[in-house]
Amino acid sequence: MKRTTIHIFAALALLLGLTACTQDEAGFLPEGAEGTPIVFTATGLNPDATATAGTRAPVDGDWEGVQSVAVRMDGTVKAYNVTPSTSDNTGATLTSTDPHYWTNHNNITVTAWWPYTAG
């Protein structure tokens, strides 16, 4: 009897082990052929910051008048529309009709600039 009980518990443990998830973050990204469209939120611009070589940011610390920015990921540049998201225009949401897509959990490098220019 004891031996049967041990075999039953061993079989149940094996069954649970076989049904365990192989990726803890499964379901984090929605099911879709392209992945998840990326929307950016930009905040915290410092109007006292000084430009460094190769960088651009709104010179007065707000997004008023900025209509689009260029966003490069994996060598591809796409236009993102700017919508100021705070009353003082220091924050913005960047969206696109042709967005980049988040397809996995790997680290990526994103570069953005304005005015928008392809390349």
Determine the number of helices (DSSP H or I, runs of at least 4 residues).
1
| Unreliable segments of 5+ consecutive residues | none
Order of helices and strands: HEEEEEEE
Question: What is the CA-CA span between the terminal residues?
Answer: 74 Å
Widest beta sheet: strand line-up? 2-5-4-3-7
Write down how many β-strands occur, each being a DSSP E stretch of 2 or more residues: 7
Query: What count of domains describes the coordinates?
Result: 1
**Estimated helix fraction:** 10-25%
Average pLDDT, rounded to a whole number, is 74
The fraction of residues assigned to DSSP E strands is 25-35%
Structural class: alpha+beta
Biggest sheet overview:
5 strands, antiparallel
Global morphology: elongated
Instruction: From the alpha carbons, calculate the radius of gyration and give it in angstroms.
Output: 24 Å
Ordered list of secondary-structure elements with their pairings:
Blueprint: H1 2-18, E1 36-37, E2 40-42, E3 68-73, E4 76-84, E5 92-95, E6 101-102, E7 110-113
Antiparallel strand pairs: 1-6, 2-5, 3-4, 3-7, 4-5
